[in-house]
């Protein structure tokens, strides 16, 4: 029976995401997901309220459509701002850590630096898209022909 025993598992670095990795994922994924949610919810609500049965209406069938669109846009914009600020703080934190890191952490720091900067650029792009969508919502009525 002693030969049937399995060797103990080796204790090594964990594959679970660290706090820095979670913050990087928040900065990378929250703004695009917020923009996607805003587009899907707003377009669906406007389509169902303004064009039921493929017949355009002069005013929305749902009287609360405009406040709902504003609320969805505000929530998605807040989520996008949160993700963009998280990405920006990650860039600042990485720059502060790069000054004190040694050669041992150089390979991991390079990958972290790349992903952190991609997250910052992506979040800035999608934050711009969220603001542009909000401006379009303020200028164009969903039930009018363009």
Explain this structure to me?
The mean pLDDT is 81. The chain is elongated, with a radius of gyration of 23 Å. It is an all-alpha fold. The protein has one domain (21-51, 58-139). The chain starts with 18 loop residues before the first helix and ends in a 7-residue tail after the last helix. α1 packs antiparallel against α2 (65-98), α1 packs parallel to α3 (106-139) and α2 (65-98) runs antiparallel to α3 (106-139). It contains three helices and no strands. 68% of the residues lie in helices and 0% in strands. It has helices at residues 19-50, 65-98, 106-139.
List its traits.
146 residues; single chain; elongated; 3 helices; mainly alpha
Concise summary:
With 146 residues, this protein is mainly alpha-helical. It is built from three helices and no strands.
Form type: elongated
Helix-strand makeup class: mainly alpha
Q: Helical percent range?
A: 55-70%
Please tell me the overall pLDDT.
81
Topology:
Blueprint: H1 19-50, H2 65-98, H3 106-139
